[in-house]
Amino acid sequence: MESIVEVSKLTKNFKDVKAVDNVSFSIKRGGIVAFLGPNGAGKSTTILMLLGLLNPTYGNVKLFNEDPKIRLVRERIGVMMQHVSLMDAVKVRELLALFKSYYSNSLSMEQLINITGLSGSEVNKRTEKLSGGQRQRVGFALALVGNPDLLFFDEPTVGMDSTSRKMFWDKVRELAKEGKTIIFSTHYLQEADDVATRILLFKNGKIAADGSPESIKRNMLKQTVSFKVNGPFMYREKFLKMTEVIELFEKKGRVTIVTENSDVILSKLFTDNISVSDISVDRGSLEDAFVQLTTEEDAHEHVH
Ligand SMILES: Nc1ncnc2c1ncn2[C@@H]1O[C@H](COP(=O)(O)OP(=O)(O)OP(=O)(O)O)[C@@H](O)[C@H]1O
Fold first, then answer.
1. Less packed terminus of the chain by CB within 10 Å, N or C?
2. Predicted ipTM?
C-alpha cells in the first residue's frame, strides 16, 4: 500500500526543551490516525514539521515520498488548525471561491457545502459575522477545497457541540473510506478510541504507544482474572511460574490473578481442570491505560 507519511528520527529542540525526541513512524493510505497526548507532549510540533512549516533539529519527513515543502506535495494536503483565522470583509462563498482558484483539482462549491454541512445562509454571511462553530465549518471547507489526499486536523472538535462533532466525524470517516488519509491531534482519549483506526500516543516528545485502539488497550492494560476456590488454593506456584502472570493474591476464598493475557489464564484453568467457581475477568478502560502511560513515568522523572 502507498506510504503517505514517513518520519525518521524526527527531533525538535527548543533550547533545552526536547519538544520532539527521535520519533519514527510511517502512515499508509486510508487511515484515521490520532496523535493523542497531554499538553506539551509534542503533537503540534510534530504536525508543524510534517507540514514543512517548522524545520527539524534532526531527522527527516517525507510526504508521498517527497519533501513536504514542494508544491506538488502541498497541493495534496489540507489543513485545519485549531484556531481558524479567516480573512475579514468577504462572504464565505467568496472566500471559498478564492481558495478554489488556487487549485487545479478543487472540489465544487456544491461538494464543499455538502461535506461540511454549511447552510445556504452561512455561505452568504461575511466571515466576521460567523459564530465559532460556523468558523470551524468554514475551516473544514477550506481544508478540503483542493480535494487533498492527506488531511491534518489540529484539535478539530474543540468548541463543537455534540451534534456538530458527530457530523464532523461521520464526514471524516467517509473521506477515509474514499482513500484519504487523516491525521488529527486530540487530548480526548474517548475521541481517539471512537474515531481513529490507529493511535500514536505522545508523551514527553516520544511515542509511548502505537497501534489500534484495541491493541493499545490489550497491550497496555493489566487484566485480572478472579475466581472462588473451595479451601486452600493448591496451584499458586504453578501460576506464578507462568510468564503471563504479574501478581497473584488470595483473599477470603477468592484468588485474583493480575495478568497481561486473561485468555491464557482461563485456558490454564480449564485444561488443568482446576475446580473453581464464579470466574470474573476484568480489564481497565482506555482511560486507565492513558493515565497509566502518561503519569507513571512523569513521577519517576521528577525524582531525577
Ligand atoms: N516555539 C516554541 N518555543 C519554545 N518551546 C516550544 C515551542 N513550541 C513548543 N514548545 C515546547 O515544546 C513542547 C511540546 O509542545 P507541543 O505544542 O508540540 O505539544 P502538544 O502535544 O501539541 O501540546 P498541546 O496539546 O498543548 O498543543 C512543550 O514543552 C512546549 O512548551
1. C
2. 0.95
